[in-house]
Design brief:
The model has no long low-confidence stretch (mean pLDDT 92). The chain is mainly alpha-helical and 227 residues long. The radius of gyration is 19 Å and the shape is elongated. Helix 1 (3-18) crosses helix 5 (91-107), helix 3 (46-53) crosses helix 4 and helix 7 packs across helix 10. A hairpin with a 7-residue loop joins strand 2 (73-77) and strand 3 (85-89). It contains 10 helices and 5 strands. The chain is 56% helix and 8% strand. 31% of the residues are buried.
Length: 227
């Protein structure tokens, strides 16, 4: 997978998520769990899902319980190891995945990476992307990285990432404190919260490492039906 594909899918989902009623709104990680179950076509243990996402079991328990409360998956105690829980996607969950993937497909503008892909392919991308944890700060680093060293305004980052302006502003502020991003001076030699930002050397290294992880992701095609 390449960065422009990753950002295209993440941007599309961030935009779609804003239009979903809060009670049914999923994090990208939760969306990815449903896509994983849909792609696998079988039930999975919570430990398997946790390993897939590189998450601790308590975190996965929280996520799957939320999805179960919404009616998108069913959780059952394992037959042998009662401590493990078996998760399976429900018909409602499968339909919700199809609806979200179709909406993401429509949210990718013509000319942008993956604008001609199918909703089913979006599901496979999300399934693959779910194995890499990228929070708002990481996405902000990647958005700046995609600019290839050029200063980027907050409004442009909002456009690139599909995140809300307050989220991007808070992410930038945190990254500035970490020394990963710096604000550029305006024509009067001053900086402020709306000043364009650019990656520092340390920020570039961090973003480059994230990009390396993205490039190692492989989106598999649907197996061909046997004749």
């Amino acid at each position: 997978m390449v960065l422009r594909e990753y950002l295209s899918i993440r941007r599309a989902y961030n935009l779609v998520r804003q239009d979903v009623e809060s009670a049914r709104r999923l994090s990208f990680a939760e969306f990815a769990i449903l896509c994983r179950l849909s792609v696998e076509g079988q039930s999975l243990r919570t430990s398997d899902i946790a390993e897939y996402q590189g998450s601790l079991r308590p975190t996965m328990t929280h996520r799957t319980k939320h999805l179960a409360a919404l009616g998108f998956l069913a959780r059952e105690k394992g037959g042998v190891d009662r401590r493990n829980v078996i998760c399976s996607i429900t018909d409602e969950g499968r339909q919700y995945v199809e609806d979200l993937c179709a909406a993401c497909r429509e949210a990718i503008p013509n000319g942008q990476s993956l604008s001609r892909t199918s909703a089913a392919r979006v599901c496979r991308y999300v399934d693959t992307m779910g194995s890499l944890t990228c929070m708002a700060g990481d996405l902000t680093l990647l958005g700046l990285y995609s600019a290839k060293g050029e200063p980027v305004s907050i409004s442009r980052l909002v456009e690139i990432l599909g995140l809300l302006q307050p989220t991007v502003s808070m992410s930038v502020a945190a990254l500035v404190e970490e020394g990963l991003v710096r604000r550029e001076e305006d024509e009067e030699g001053e900086t402020g919260r709306t000043s364009p930002v650019v990656l520092t050397d340390e920020g570039w290294e961090r973003a480059d490492a994230l990009n390396g992880q993205i490039e190692r992701l492989v989106v598999h095609r649907r197996p061909r039906a046997s004749k």
